Amino acid sequence: MDSIMLAYIAGFLDGDGSIFFQIVPRKDYKIKFQIRGSVAFYQKTENIEILEWLKKNLKSGYIRNRRTGMSDYTIVDSKEVEKILNCLQPYVRIKKKQLILGLNILQKIKSVKSDKDFLEVCKLVDKFGELNYSKKRKVTYQTVKERLQK
Predict the structure, then answer these.
(1) Which of 2, 11, 14, 15 is catalytic?
(2) What is the CATH number of the domain that holds 53?
């Protein structure tokens, strides 16, 4: 994609999008948790064409129509999230701290070799929640730490 298109998408992310990371319980994982990064864009369902355009150009993720009259386009595949964040990094302004921390989390996940390493990444996810003023987070560093100590 050219720089004008990337700048447009970055502006959309800054205004009507979000970057977030979660610690998700996973029974099928050795540590029983997964760190999931997501990039999402939001729009009234009546304007879904812009989300469809984004999906066509970013070539990943899914669109969901909510009962509230809103729709979202979400990318959760970690390789795709990393690729998108790297492409948008020069252009994002408002969510620059989230983008940089998100890329840091994605890099650190790749080098996790122990429970201790995983807990360090969980601390970064908690820090990410603070940047996003997250209030509904149920699974945190502390949750994982307590589970691993059992």
Answers:
(1) 15
(2) 3.10.28.10
Domain housing 24: 3-149
Give the per-residue pLDDT at 30. 81
Nearest to 1 by CA among 56, 45, 61: 56
Candidates 2, 11, 14, 16; catalytic one: 16
Give how many domains the chain has, as a whole number: 1
Query: pLDDT per residue over 17-72, tens digit each?
Result: 999 999 999 988 888 899 999 999 999 999 999 999 999 999 999 999 999 999 99
3-state secondary structure of 75: strand
Crossing angle of helices 3-16 and 48-58, in 10° steps, is 130
What is the reported pTM? 0.91
Residue 28 falls in the annotated catalytic set = no
Q: Please state, in angstroms and rounded to a whole number, the distance separating the CA atoms of residues 111 and 149.
A: 22
